[in-house]
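Submission sheet (multi-component)
Chains listed below:
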Amino acid sequence: MQLEVDIQHKTFTNAAGERLNVLADFKFALGAGEVGVFVGPSGCGKSTMLRILAGLDHDYRGRVTRPADARIGMVFQEPRLLPWRSVEENVRLAAPRVDEAKLSALFAVLELNEHRSHFPGELSLGLARRVALARAFAVDPDFLILDEPLASLDDALAARLREEIAILVDSRSVTTLLVTHSVEDAVRLGDRLFLLSPRPARILADLPIGTPRSARGEAEIAAIKADVARRINGDCIERDAS
Amino acid sequence: MLRLLSFAVFLATWWIAALLAGGQKLPPPPAVLTAIVTEATSGALFFNLGVTLARVAFAFTLAMTLGTAIGYLMGRMRLANRLGDPWLILLLNLPALVVIVLAYIWAGLTEVAAIAAIAINKLPTAVVTVREGTRALDAALDEMATVFAIPRWKAFRHVILPQLAPYIAAAARSGLSLVWKIVLVAELLGRPNGVGFEIGIAFQLFDIPLLLAYSLTFAAVVLAIETVLVQPFEARLSRWRPRAA
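Outcome: structure written.
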C-alpha cells in the first residue's frame, strides 16, 4: 500500500479554548511494505497525526492519500481492549476472518496461548500490549499503525516485543508507521526515520536506512543512533540520547 | 441460613406486636395465613396476582425499551437532549397520581390506560440513567471500533452495550421497585381486579387479614423475582469484573 501525506495545517482547540497549531506543512510519502518511524519530543503532535492517518480525525487542511479499502491495524498508546471480552474474543472481534491456524501462530509468537480465555483485567500491561499487537496483526493489515507500542515497559520486555514486531512486520511486508520517542526502537525497526520538531510538528530530517532490519549489526545501529542524536538537540530525546 | 433466621425474627416480632396491639388492629400470623389459604383455594389470590404481574411485565418492558432507546439518543445527540430535556424534567417531577388519573380520564378505565400510566411513571428514570451511561461511554473504544472497521451492529453489541449494561441494570432495578409500587395505585383507582383492587376492597371493609394476605404474598412474589431473575442476571453481566471483597 502506498501512502502519501500532505497536511498543510492542523489546529486543535484545548479545553481552555486556546487554539494550538499541531501540524504545519507536514509532507511525506511511504512506499509499499516500508516501515516509517516518527521520532520526536513528547506532545509534538505525533498522535494527532496518527489519528488523521487512521481516519479518526477529519478536521484538518491538506490531503492524505491511501487506498480507501485499505485494512488498518492499529496499536494505540494504551491497549484499548474490551474488558468484558476474553483475549481471544477481543482479537476475533476485530478480525472476524482470521482462521485458527493463523491465530495460533500469532499467539505463539507473542506467547499468548495460555492467556486466550483470560479477561484483559487479569493481564499485566505487558501482556495487554501484546494482545493489542496480536489484534492489529490478526486483521492482516495493509496499513499498520503503531503508536508508542512499547512505552512504559521495562527494557528487557521492550526489547523482546521489538524483536516480535520486527518478525511480524517482515513476515507480512506491510506498510507501517511507528511513532516512538525511543531512538533505539526507531533504529532497530525502521526503514526510514523521520525526525520531528516540537509543536507545531514539522519533519526536520528524512533518513533512509539502507541495510535490511535483520542484517543490521550492532556497530551500524550505534552509528545511526549517534547520527540521530546529533541531529536532534538534546532536550527532545530524554532517555536515549545518552 | 441467615435469611431464614432474619425471616424467623420478622415472624416473632410480628407475633409479639400482634399480642400487644390486639388482634383487631394487627392480626397474628395464623389469622393472615388462614386468609391466604381461603383466597388461594378460591383461586382469587392467584388470579389477582397473575393479573398484577402481567401489568407489571407489560409496563416494565415498555418503559425499559422506550427509556433505553430515548436515553441512548439523548446521550449521543445534543439536539435530542435539548429537545427532550424539558419533557424529562416535567415527567420526572410529575406525581404518579396525576399521570394515573389523567390517563384514566383521557383513555377511559381501560387496561391500556393503566399500563400506559405505569410505564410513563417509570420511563423518565430509565431515560436519565441510560443517558448518564451513554455520556460515560469510552470514546477510546469507539475509535478502536472505527479503526478496525467493526460493523455498526457488532460494535453496538460488543462495545457499546456492555458499557451500558450496568446502567440498564440499575434502571431495571430501581424501575422495577417503582413499578411494583405504582401498579397497585393504578389498580386501586381504576381496575376491577389485581392486588391493588383487592387491597382497596379490604381497606373499605376494614378486613385487615385480607389486606395483609395480599400485601405479604405480593411482597413474597417480588422477593422471589428479585432472587431468581434480577440478581443472577446482574451476576452474569459482571462476571468479567474482578470479584469484590
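Remark: DSSP finds seven helices and nine strands in chain A.
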